[in-house]
Amino acid sequence: MNSIQTFGQWIKQRRKALGLTQKELAQQAGCAEVTLRKIEAGDLQPSGQLAASLVAVAGVADADLPARVGFALGGGERRAPAGRWSKQRRPHNLPAQLTPLLGRELDIAAVRSRLREGTRLITLLGPPGVGKTRLALAAAESVLDEFEHGVFFVRLAPVSNPDLVAATIVQALNASSSGPNPPALKLRAYLEEKHLLLVLDNFEQVIEAAPLVDGLLRRCSWLNVLVTSRQPLRMRGERQVPVLPLTLPAQFPGAIRLTADEALRYPVVALFADRAAAVQPDFTVTDSNAAAVVELCRRLDGLPLAIELVAARVKLLPPAELLARVRGTWMLSVDGLRDVSPRQKTLRGAFSWSFDLLSPSEQTLFTQLAVFANGFTLEAAEALCGDESTKSQVVDGIASLLDKSLLRREIGPRGESHYSLLETVREYALERLALSGREAELLARHAGYFVQLVENVERIDPDPGRIQLHRLLDNDIYDIRAALAWAMTHDVQAALLLTAALLEWLSARGPFVEATRLIHEVFALPGAAERTMARAKALCEAGLLLQFVGENVEAQAFAEESLVLSQELGYGKGEADALLALGRIATGWGDRDAAQRHLENALARYRILDAPGGISQSLALLGEIALEQADLPRAQALCEECLAVAQRAGFAYPWPLGILANLAWAEGDLARARLLNEQRLAGERQRGVKGSIAHTLLELGTVATRQRDFPAAHLFLDEAFILLKEQGHENYLRAGYLRLAALLQAEGDYRQAVQWYREGLAGANHYPADVGPLPAEPGLSGRSPGPGRVSRQAAGRDGDRE
Fold first, then answer.
1. What does the alpha-carbon distance between residue 433 and residue 441 come to, in Å, rounded to a whole number?
2. What angle do helix axes 730-747 and 690-706 make, rounded to 10 degrees?
3. Res. 792 pLDDT band, cuts 50 70 90
4. Stronger pLDDT, 106 or 775, i.e. the higher one
5. Which residues make Cβ contacts (< 8 Å) with residue 435, sequence separation at least 6?
């Protein structure tokens, strides 16, 4: 022991001497593998109970047990006196826990810190199944020695009458209950001179007993109270501590799958593994099942109760098959252990406990809010769940549900409040909504609300890039998709309108495979052929997107039908939009005469309609054609008029800056070309359209290559490729590969350059007509339209769509 500095090093040495793995020793000691890993690494000090278990498993003689446990509790001490282990603890009635508490170290420390700072009333708040009781017990255990008269746990779950709370506390304290005085007076007399911590568990159903707690704290100056509840007591001096679900691994597009070791670093995964191994001893998280386990934990919102219940089913099904079933009735009805209260045996029981405590109006609102697939704003809830006379009631109801831990509030990217149900809670609310008989009505109202929202945004947004529409779908894409799914079976005209909006968004965000699938599904619906404005809108957007993915023949057919239909209906804006789309498609064919004719006709109609978005977009596209025809003065004039129109209308329009940058390139002014593209990039980042950002980065990469600023060129192209891959457009990625090849060639890396030229040229036959192989040298104004000729559409519908 002389060479061992810590208990962790000692137990690791003993484990290896016994030929045990971390998992094997952890199983024998009754703890999680991740817990043992932290102890060995010196990141966690074991409790006395766990230290005794580890020492016993390590084969230490009974006589040496106190010293070894004292060594563990003393951290780096060589040896602790036996008296430290045998010291009598403060009085308490805390139940012993048979499983480790994972992932709550910071929460325990926060509660302990609050108590040590002098906070006398702490309320742990959280949704059903989040583990408030376990956290309270662990926190109480950690401060037991700091309260002279001990720590006492009071179960209030069986108590429904607030008048019985005082008697229940008296019983838990084992205080004398004889005599004529009422329980509240006896309790106050008993606690008046005691330094003691009361843990009041499940206070939500006796919340009217809050004045009792207030009176005790005022009369008993040495008393501290730790409460678990789904709603606050709302008393002076109360410190509310939210108990959140366990942290989940981050989820973002293109994320690399976690290995088993990486996944097990998350307590939520370690909890699943520990509970699964309890019923299936040979279960372990492996590299092959780690992704399924992580997704299971994510679907279960990181709620410990939900994870424990589902993990116990690995004896029946492996994680991948469990994942396919974790929804609806099956998830809510999975039963659990026999040593818990009935309400904790299933998720349905846990959620029903909270639901039954709501008022009838709160119950109705709770079930109605479940129709939102990804949360809601106050305005959305008012529109869907109320009318002019009940809007204030909706706001009050949401405040109450938030107070009772059934809703959570987040702050959006622009500072707006956004509310949501945990997905497991939402599944329960949907079940209650179906039982109410109002599900069909609410789903119809939900779809109608989002159709109206899309139409309103399109009507008021002058920006040709449809930035407000993009932001709406960025925030509400899951609800838009849910509304579309409903509309496809109930209201085909609403489905066409939502499809038009979704195609516009997908063209800028991707993935394109979803867009093309959607086009074929929606136009095949019964009733989709009806000659309506909704069909005209969807046809135009479908034509634009199909042109973008290289399906020019089908794209032209869609746009031409949109034009004819709009003319039939007298739909002026639809006619102008269809002409604009035909101009872009003709550009894709390489027919610039037809493109110019369509665009000039579109411009004339937009001027009649006084539509600044359409005017500026038409001017920009005509400016591009003038640039490609080497008519530089006309291109300059069109771009300047485009910028002036946008400025008068009050929206930023960065795309013409890119055309002016190409003009500077054609005139040999690389410094100005880069400056204009950098200005454009700043504008595009502010707008947040990935395609436009990627396009501008490709342009900058080409200019930086010509300037021999190779580090900057690599940075520009690398970021562009990340965005292009997220969109999933292989043809335009290859166009970008040609830019990378040119950069490598300029650096003298000819071997790599040849490889990327081959990658880029492999799809040359599939480039649209206006995408050439590489731009000419700068300064050759009669031959070169600019650096971005290959990359112009590589990143998105940016210039073409804005």
1. 10
2. 20
3. very low
4. 106
5. none
Q: What is the pLDDT of residues 265-310, one digit of tens each?
A: 999 999 999 999 988 999 999 999 999 999 999 999 999 988 988 8
Contact (CB, 8 A) for 639 and 605: no
- Give the whole-angstrom CA distance, residue 126 versus residue 132: 7
pLDDT at 351: 87
**What per-residue string of b and e applies to 138-165 under the rule 16 or more CB within 10 Å gives b?**
bbbbbbeeebebbbbbbebbebeebebb
DSSP β-bridge partners for residue 153: 199
Span 392-410, average pLDDT: 90
**Res 86 pLDDT > 70:** no
Q: What pLDDT does residue 731 have? A: 66
- pLDDT above 70 covers a percentage of the chain that reads 88
Is residue 788 scored above 70 in pLDDT? Answer: no
**Rounded mean pLDDT, 533-551:** 91
- 196 forms beta bridges with 223
**pLDDT tens track for 589-598:** 788 899 999 9
Q: 763 pLDDT band (50/70/90 cuts)?
A: low
Q: β-pairing, 121-125 with 223-229?
A: parallel
Q: Give which of 662, 689, 682, 681 is closest to 673, Cα–Cα.
A: 662
Query: Residue 308 to residues 266, 274, 311: CA-CA distances in angstroms?
Result: 15, 9, 5
**DSSP codes, 449-467:** HHHHHHHHHHHH---TT-H
- How many CB atoms lie under 10 A from the CB of residue 235? 15
Q: At what angle do helices 48-57 and 22-29 cross, to 10 degrees?
A: 120
**Sign, Cα dihedral of 112, 117, 121, 127:** negative
Phi, psi of 414 (to 5 degrees): -110, 20
Longest C-alpha distance within the chain, in Å? 107
What tokens does 61 get?
């003689």
518's tokens: 């959607």
Check residue 195 and give left, alpha or beta (phi > 0: left; psi -120 to 50: alpha).
beta
Identity (one letter) of the amino acid at 313? R
Single-letter code of the amino acid located at 271: L
- Cβ atoms of residues 293 and 273 within 8 Å: yes
Distance CA 301, CA 248 (A): 8
- Looking at the DSSP bridge assignments, the partners of residue 117 are none
Both tokens of 506, joined, read 């997908």
Going by the DSSP 8-state scheme, the letter that residue 244 receives in this structure is P
Round to the nearest angstrom and report the end-to-end CA distance of the chain: 73
Give the distance from CA 198 to its chain's centroid. Answer: 38
Residue 343 has a pLDDT of 66
HEC per residue, 716-748: HHHHHHHHHHHHCCHHHHHHHHHHHHHHHHHHC
User: DSSP label at 418?
Assistant: E
pLDDT (tens digit, 9 = 90+) per residue, 56-85?
A: 888 887 777 777 887 887 644 434 344 444
Tell me how far the alpha carbon of residue 70 is from its chain's centroid. Answer: 45
Cα–Cα dist 667/636, whole Å: 12
- Which pairs from 109-118 meet CB under 8 Å and 24+ separation? 110/241, 111/135, 111/136, 111/139, 111/226, 111/241, 112/139, 112/142, 112/143, 114/239, 114/241, 115/139, 115/143, 115/146, 115/197, 115/224, 115/226, 116/143, 116/146
